[in-house]
Amino acid sequence: MSFPSPLAPDKGATALDLVYQAADVFRDMEKHARETEARAQSLCTSALERLRLAEGRAEAAERAQRELTVTTERKLQDACRALEQAQCCIEAQKDKLTAVELRAEVAEAEARQAKEALALVEEAIRKRLLCTNPHADGRLAAVA
């Protein structure tokens, strides 16, 4: 049986040196991988926090929009009620104005009738009681 010849000291040292270099490369790769993973984790954490903040702002904006919508609808309903009340008041005022105008027309007609009746009474008094012509005496005409 034959045994392989032992490695020469310089080949063994070279191999051992290569193993150490490989170990250093692997350590550097692991270190780089850990740093990359840490950066990725940090980026994910930061992105998640920004996402939470954005969701919070979106929810706040939606709440504000709903509140604004409710407030606007309430104010619009109030304005509609006020408009309806104003229209009712305007109609009532128109009705009152119409009634006042009618009463004024009636009063004017009654005043004309009263004036005509008074003129007739004056004429009757002149003709029957005073037996005078209203145009003949200036004093009686002035009294009338």
Structure description:
The chain has two helices and no strands. 89% of the residues lie in helices and 0% in strands. The radius of gyration is 58 Å and the shape is rod-shaped.
Defining key terms:
mainly alpha; 2 helices; about 0% strand
Q: What's this model, at a glance?
A:
This protein is mainly alpha-helical and 144 residues long. Helices cover 89% and strands 0% of the residues. The longest helix is centred in the middle third of the chain and has 122 residues, at 9-130.
Topology at a glance:
Layout: H1 9-130, H2 138-143
Computed over alpha carbons, the radius of gyration is 58 Å
The averaged pLDDT comes out at: 88
Oligomer: single chain
Query: N-to-C terminal Cα separation, in Å?
Result: 174 Å
Q: What's the β-strand tally?
A: 0
Succession of helices and strands: HH
In percent terms, what proportion of residues is strand?
A: under 5%
Biggest sheet features:
none
Class based on secondary structure composition and strand pairing: mainly alpha
- The helix content, as a percent range, equals over 70%
Low-confidence sequence ranges: 138-144
Shape: rod-shaped
Tally of individual helices:
2
